[in-house]
Amino acid sequence: MRTILETLTRALVQLWHGLDLARRLIVNLLFVFLIVVLLAWLLTSDRPEVADSTALVVEPAGSLVEQLYGTPDERALLRLLGRYRPESLVRSLHEAIEAAGRDDRVKALYLDLNRLGRGGLSTLQSLRQDIEAFKATGKPVLAAADFYSQSRYHLAAAADEVMVHPMGMVLLPGFGSYRNYYKEALDRLEVDWNVFRVGEYKSAVEPFMRSAMSSEVRQNRMRWMEELWKAYRTDIASARDLSPEAVAAYSNDFHRKLADHSGRAAAVALAEGLVDRVVNRDEVRDRLVELVGEDEKTHSYHGINYLDYLEAIETSHRKSDNVVAVVVAKGAIYNGSRPPGSIGGDSTAELIRRARNSAEVKALVLRIDSPGGSSFASEIIRREVELTRDSGKPVVVSMGSVAASGGYWIAMSADQIWASATTITGSIGIYAMAPTFQRTLARLGIHNDGVGTGPFAGTLRPERGLPDEAVEALQSSIEAGYEEFIVRVAEERGMTVEQVDQVAGGRVWSGAEAHDLGLVDELGGLQEALDAAAEKAGVLDDYSVVYIEQEAGKTSKVLTALLESAADRLDGWTLSRFAARNRWSGLETLLEEVTRLSDFNDPGGLYAYCFCDIE
Questions:
Q1: DSSP 8-state symbol, 116
Q2: If pLDDT is split at 50, 70 and 90, which confidence band does 368 have?
């Protein structure tokens, strides 16, 4: 009897294990099947269609940039977390507007500028040229926004019709450059912010040395900002058939003009000739319906977003086997490798090497939009530019909105340097900072003490003051770094060291001024630089443009699709909604400034950086 029960028990146990194994297998297979179906759903999508009569909707979001920050999966994750700052790639805007001008299906260009953030003046001017080229085809261009900032209006002014909401305004405050100065606060906190620099115009360190801007920097900064403001006024005046003086009067006397129109800013813009119509959003839609027809499904006009349009037409950039490669150097310069949107000495140098070692690449254009950063990383990149030039492949630099300090360092060994008239460049100088907190800590009863085998043992610790030997060594390093900078510029630009020193010392120049001073060879945009590189390589009549960029792997592409899908479906319900933030703006600004500086990682602590932001 016992034997029968044991046999039956074993049979039941085996059956149970078999059923459990089958259950797990079925569940796992079902899970894999669902994952496959989900991925197939995420990774396959219908290509957008272009109607026979449609408007290309150019709706840039956030800042206009030469390169998007981070890899696609990093951007998708930041978006999911609610921490992604929107950016619009200038290259995509250019390609869409250019292609639409040739496309018979696109009957109009609509500039929806409500989401546009910041854009450098030279960048805005390059997009203005694209808009003007579209207008030259005979197709209308409309621009609309509820509120026009200075950047938004620069693009809008090129349109045939400029519209603003009745409760909106056009605000043209001019250019300004303001920073917080921390010297008094640092003194109260008894922080020793040791600063080493060469050049009385090297303003990056001034906030830690002074309580106000120096007269030298004030004069230099005001000069080049006035050059940019003059160019802005001229652009607006020519587009709207006004005088530059009228634009200046609108900016300076806005408060009086507003009072004359009972506080209605939109009416002021209409009366002053800056806009053509004051309309509600539905009236903008009605006007577009008049031009391109009504979409019966949406009861609105036929329109396609510029990114969808690029996906729909799938433009091919490889029209020739003769390639002019473009490497984008955008953002601050750091030592080591960095993601796109910032510059790593190693990662950007590797992209340049790829271009140099490629048989199909006939010439290289280095597109720079950078205020500089690490001196060491800048030299690593400059050396790769020099090696590429010496290999026989022409190297042409195209400066974007900013190519200053370290941004100029990486440019100087090219065969030719192009800049826009409104590029911010120069700032040839170098500095180092070494804050110490021994006095602050002493107030709390914290003291640092010990022994060392020499005067430099334990040096550069933030809780210890700098010994005289370290101060002398750092100043010598700064002076040697500056000397190397200006000697290299003199060699590459065919100038004497004395001539370079006269335009260096941290002075910032507009592109037009830099051209007159010999720091820049030609004035023009990216396309002119591409043509110049192709001409130097002997392929001007037959070449394609290829961007050399960091490549995303297959895993990254799948992850990007998953994250983007999740972000789309959350529709703004991001994790950041659950994070309360209480800030004290003054302290936060100081901490952000310190954090930005501490992010720099030059091994020698020497930096060629220009704080040349303008509002």
A1: B
A2: very high
Answer yes or no: is 392 within a domain: yes
The DSSP string of 219-254 is HHHHHHHHHHHHHHHHHHHHHHT--HHHHHHHHHTH
Which two three-digit tokens encode residue 364? 């290289």
Instruction: Tell which of 259, 285, 313 closes a domain.
Output: 313
Domain assignment of residue 226, yes or no: yes
- For residues 153 and 223, membership in a common domain is answered with yes
Q: For position 512, which CATH number holds?
A: 3.90.226.10
What tokens appear for 142 in the block?
């409309």
User: H helices within 464-584, ranges in order?
Assistant: 468-493, 497-503, 511-517, 526-537, 554-570
Lookup: tokens for 333: 């310069």
CA distance linking residue 191 with residue 199, whole number of Å: 24
**Active site (catalytic) residues:** 202, 405
pLDDT band at 610 (very low <50, low <70, confident <90, very high): confident
Q: Which tokens in the block code for residue 294?
A: 């009504």
What are 566-569's contacts with CB under 8 Å, separation 24+? 566/80, 567/76, 567/79, 567/80
Alpha-carbon distance of 17 to 15, in angstroms, equals 5
Residue 220 shares a structural domain with residue 83:
yes
Decide: 106 and 54 in contact? Cβ < 8 Å: yes
- Residue ranges with strand state E in 271-350: 277-278, 294-295, 300-301, 303-305, 323-330, 333-334, 343-344
Count the Cβ atoms, other than its own, within 10 Å of residue 239: 19
pLDDT band for position 566 (50/70/90)? very low
- The residues, ordered by sequence, that sit 6+ positions from 545 with a Cβ below 8 Å of its Cβ are 317, 323, 324, 326, 530
Tens of pLDDT, residues 150-206? 999 999 999 999 999 999 999 999 999 998 999 999 999 999 988 888 877 778 888
Q: Please count the structural domains in the chain.
A: 2
In a domain, 535, yes or no: yes
Classify each residue of 108-121 as buried b or exposed e, where b means 16 or more C-beta atoms within 10 Å of its C-beta: bbbbbbbebbbbbb
Cα–Cα distance between 128 and 295 in angstroms, integer? 29
β-sheet bridge partners, residue 58: 111
CB of 155 within 8 A of CB of 131?
yes
Same domain, 330 and 293: no
Q: How many whole angstroms separate alpha carbon 288 and alpha carbon 55?
A: 8
Which letter does DSSP use for residue 273 in this model?
T
CA angle 38, 44, 46 (to 5 degrees): 130
Do 255 and 351 fall within a single domain?
A: no
- pTM here? 0.84
Number of CB atoms found within 10 A of residue 436's CB: 19
- The last residue of a domain, from among 313, 332, 357: 313
Pairing of β 161-170 and β 277-278: parallel
- Residue range(s) defining the domain that contains residue 143: 54-176+210-313
Question: What mean pLDDT value characterizes the chain?
Answer: 87
Phi, psi angles (nearest 5°) of residue 522: -140, 155
Evaluate whether residue 115 is within a structural domain: yes
- Closest C-alpha among 397, 345, 378, 338 to residue 608: 378
